[in-house]
Structure formats: C-alpha cells, structure tokens
Amino acid sequence: MTYRYDLGVFPGFWALLMLLVLILVVGAVVWLAFELSGRRHPDRAAGARSASAELILAERLARGEIDEEEYRRRLGALRE
Predict the structure, then answer these.
(1) 70: how many CB neighbours lie within 10 A of its CB?
(2) pLDDT score, position 5
(3) Considering only Cβ atoms within 10 Å of each terminal Cβ, which end of the chain, N or C, has fewer?
(4) Global pTM?
(5) For residue 60, what are the contacts with CB-CB under 8 A and spacing of at least 6?
(6) Per-domain residue ranges for the chain?
(7) Residue 40 has what pLDDT?
(8) CA angle, 54 as apex, 49 and 55 as ends, to 5°?
C-alpha cells in the first residue's frame, strides 16, 4: 500500500507561488523607493523646498542681512 503526501495541487504550483511572491516583493521595494524619493509626488518635494526657502529667508532676517520690508516682499514671492 502506498501513501501519497501531496496537497492535491498541480506540480508547478509551488514554483508559481514563489515567482508570484518574488514579483510582489520586488514591486513593493520599487514602490517604496519612489515614495521615499519624492519623484512620484512632486508637490510634496516642492513643498519641502519652499519650507526650507522660507526658513533661509527667516534666518537672513534674523541675522540682519535683509530688512522686514524685503523679507515680506520675498516671502510673498515664495508663496505665490
């Protein structure tokens, strides 16, 4: 009497399953790389640049490099 210990699936099932998992993992890594780079959402990257530009402008005002009128004019130009 012989016993078969299989799960009743076709022979290439496990290879296909492993290939599918590999494709999903690679896709997730690529998606994560795009999300972290900011290329997919240029608005977010531009917002970060604008915030850093406003910070630099505020620092210049604090150091006395520009006066308050110049600060307000440039800040308005940045926010447009």
Answers:
(1) 13
(2) 63
(3) N
(4) 0.42
(5) 66, 71
(6) 17-79
(7) 62
(8) 95
Per-residue pLDDT, 37: 79
Residue 33 and residue 61 in contact, taking contact as beta carbons nearer than 8 Å: no
Residue 6 is predicted with a pLDDT of 61
The Cα 74–Cα 22 span in angstroms is 51
SS3 string of the chain?
CCCCCCCCCCCCHHHHHHHHHHHHHHHHHHHHHHHHHCCCCHHHHHHHHHHHHHHHHHHHHHHCCCCHHHHHHHHHHHHC
pLDDT digits (tens, 9 = 90+) for 32-50: 988 887 666 555 555 555 5
23: Cα separation from own chain's centroid: 20
Alpha carbon distance, N-terminus to C-terminus of the chain: 83
Q: Which two tokens stand for residue 33?
A: 């790389």
